[in-house]
Amino acid sequence: MYSHTREAMVLARGTRLLVGAMIVACAVMVGPSGPGDAPAGRSLPPSAAREVVPNRVMTWNLCNPCEESNVDRAAEIATYAPQVIGLQEACARDVERIRDHLENLYGLVYHVEYGSVLRNWGRCGGAPWNPGGYGQAILSAAPMTDPVNVEYPDGGSEDRGYMAVTTRVDGRPVRVFNTHLAERRQEEVRAEQVGVLAAVVAGHDRTIVLGDFNAVPHAYEIAPMWELAADADPQCHPSRTGTCEPTTEWQSKFDYIFLRGFTPRTHRVHLTPYSDHYLLQADLERT
């Protein structure tokens, strides 16, 4: 009796271990993404783009740490299907999954370059000895070349930087930058960061600068960018008289698409429940 009972207990324990191992294996394959991040696409609205729009660029701060589903993030991007999108506060693992969801669920194929500036377990998870890369990323429907990833000499309260690639927008080669400046109430740090960025941007006649500048348009620290480029929002100017559409849920404009060699046909801010920043879009034409 004891022998049969013990054998049954051992068998039951073995079954539980097998089931547990299968669950862990599935979790590893899917990855530690936000709640509901399962490979089942969210329906796109009827007005969604059917394929990549070749002259469309976007920027989006994903919000981190935020427990959002990469399936939902991918659906937001797929709705507008930009040629190029710059992401900030991006974990490399999340970006990989977003790219996979865009292709597998919506048939949108993107190349990816990463601009990670730190490896942070608290931000991006991963094994303690191998935390995920955190920073910027660029997704482009066209191949990208000559990538650079630069960490600012002073990131402020957290490491920050910019990345740049050469790709194609509206059929023309263009140097695309993506940055995330120091957090609010660090004006002097941002001023130094903008000085570093602007010096590089000035060397390119056809340039798109995407990013979260953590500063309103009339802030003194981003004045060098206004001297080099125009915002994709034609009503937005560095003076307080400009009418700048907010790009954050606290009704401030912190996100920009600065243009050199392009003019905007349209400019839109898309509200989203999946970040504290909205998606900022511009459809461009060559000048």
Keywords summarizing the entry:
alpha+beta; disordered N terminus; globular; 6-stranded mixed sheet; 287 residues
Q: Could you explain how this protein is built, in words?
A:
The chain has 287 residues and is an alpha+beta fold. Helices cover 28% and strands 33% of the residues. It is built from six helices and 14 strands. A hairpin with a 2-residue loop joins strand 4 (126-127) and strand 5. It is globular, with a radius of gyration of 22 Å. The relative contact order is 0.13. Mean pLDDT is 88; it is low at 1-36.
Summarize the structure.
By secondary structure, the protein is an alpha+beta fold. It contains 6 helices and 14 strands.
The rounded distance between the terminal residues' Cα atoms is 88 Å
Strand arrangement, major sheet: 3-6-2-1-14-13
Mean pLDDT: 88
In total, the number of strands is 14
Helices and strands in order, then pairings?
Blueprint lengths: L1 H29 L22 E9 L8 H11 L1 E10 H15 L4 E9 L1 H4 L1 E2 L2 E2 L1 E8 L4 E7 L9 E9 L2 E9 L6 H15 L5 E6 L10 H6 L1 E2 L23 E6 L1 E9 L8 E8 L1
Parallel strand pairs: 1-2, 9-10
Antiparallel strand pairs: 1-14, 2-6, 3-6, 4-5, 7-8, 8-9, 10-12, 11-12, 13-14
